[in-house]
């Protein structure tokens, strides 16, 4: 299992990689909202600094975490590109090589 934050971080990395790969390409795609659905195990840590954590669960791993409640969450993320100078965020554009049959 991985934390939900780690899954979102990896998604961000993959989308950034696609964005960088498309830099300077003639054909680009506007990146719309990204919907992510995951099964998460909700755990609570005890002690003075008690925390609730959301862990993304592998479909076959539900039985291993009987002490955790499993919930299904859907997130809709709207990617934006923020310039290095911290200016206004813009719509992300992803590009790639043309595939046979594309116009």
Could you characterize what this model shows?
The chain has 1 helix and 8 strands. It has one helix spanning 4-21; strands spanning 2-3, 28-30, 34-45, 51-56, 69-77, 80-81, 90-91, 93-95. The N and C termini lie far apart (42 Å). The model has no long low-confidence stretch (mean pLDDT 78).
Rounded mean pLDDT is 78
What's the Cα radius of gyration? 18 Å
Order of helices and strands: EHEEEEEEE
Distance between the termini: 42 Å
Binned strand content: 35-45%
Structural class: alpha+beta
Q: Report the principal-axis shape.
A: elongated
Largest sheet properties? 4 strands, antiparallel
DSSP, total strands: 8
Helix content: 10-25%
Number of helices: 1
Low-pLDDT regions: none
Strand order, main sheet: write it out. 1-4-3-5
Write a compact overview of the structure shown.
With 103 residues, this protein is an alpha+beta fold. 17% of the residues lie in helices and 38% in strands. The chain contains one helix and eight strands; from the N terminus they run βαβββββββ.
């Amino acid at each position: 299992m991985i934390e939900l934050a780690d899954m979102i971080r990896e998604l961000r990395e993959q989308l950034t990689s696609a964005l960088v790969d498309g830099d300077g390409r003639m054909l680009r795609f506007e990146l719309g909202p990204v919907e992510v659905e995951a099964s998460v195990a909700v755990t609570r840590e005890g002690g003075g600094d008690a925390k609730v954590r959301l862990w993304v669960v592998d479909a076959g791993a539900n039985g291993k975490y009987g002490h955790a409640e499993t919930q299904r969450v859907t997130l809709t993320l709207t990617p934006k590109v923020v310039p290095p100078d911290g200016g206004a965020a813009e719509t992300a554009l992803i590009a790639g090589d043309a595939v046979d049959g594309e116009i």
